[in-house]
User: What shape does this take?
Amino acid sequence: MSTHRGSSGCFNWSWADGTATTTIYYHNTCSTTKHLCVWWKDGQENNLHRITAGGDEKGHLKEPGTIITNDIEDC
Assistant: This one.
């Protein structure tokens, strides 16, 4: 199992490869509310999840499937 870490604009994020589900952990490092878009692949279907986080907020989101690495960005 691999752990992935990165950043995009105001967000630092990480997740470990899952099988049935994947959880992404995030931290909004800016002082204002921002949004992070994450694409999950569940079978043949891709789903966009828009995470909203207040300034300096940390959190996580767990969804079925795996995260598409190249498609995590501020939105």
